[in-house]
């Protein structure tokens, strides 16, 4: 009996979460980088709990009543810049988001979110610590403006989709020509924590990245950031296909991230932790993989219909649909 218990304690946990979240809101709000600012500088697409607002001064799991994610105890918010198409005539249109493959059908846009341990199969025998209440971080920066600097972020990539299952090759910038199946953006966050700060002035210094490429084993955490957390990653699938027959005659890339970037070097993402109680730690300590973590084993989950029903109204009165004269917030 005793031996079995000890074996269970040292056995590597192999939990990895991969789940869909439908779109919660698309608006100019950024409670992490520009708290309280209405509207924020550029348009974001946001998924997760409905406590999302301009200030986010409370623990989301205390104030949210629903989430757009599969796991109903996850009131975190996850967001990235939105994508727009620029017509040769100067007008812009927002690029719709489509659901990923390998998820239940019917998810409304949104993202696929991952919390992996080391790669898809193992945590390398390390304890994976869940994020503490109040934790937040960003990865990437809209001010990155050279391909050399973009390449230094191994986790921030674009994939030209042939179909929804295409994963390679990855590039640090926008694909140079029309993609038959759309464009996927991928955002991997660092996973080594300083063990003290739930945030830092630039929202990045409390974390450290040791991964050299996407979904591959990360190196050991450094002494400055000794605590191994889950590796959080987002995949967003942009349905660019309706624009493929409008590619500009001069060959330039017509797709723009919402802060006026048609290179993609400044691609970035935001994370604001909001899992209820110790639910994320429970999942990280278990051995479940992906969908097998649902239905109380060990995480509570919900139907696609319930995910799609959760939404927040825009705090900003501005039209983001149809053909627009300028990128919202970017008018000269
Ligand atoms: C955001 O929500 C929190 C919690 O409900 C609330 O305390 C805060 O006042 C809200 N902020 C805004 C700008 O509405
Ligand atoms: C640009 O082209 C689109 C697509 O044909 C059209 O709907 C839009 O009104 C045009 N904008 C201008 C300013 O002509």
TrEMBL record:
DUF1996 domain location: 30-275
Pfam families named in the record: DUF1996
Keywords, comma-separated and alphabetical: Signal
Coiled-coil ranges (or none): none
Record keyword Protein biosynthesis present: no
Keyword Signal: yes
Residues in the signal sequence: 1-15
Protein name per the record: DUF1996 domain-containing protein
Source lineage: Eukaryota, Fungi, Dikarya, Ascomycota, Pezizomycotina
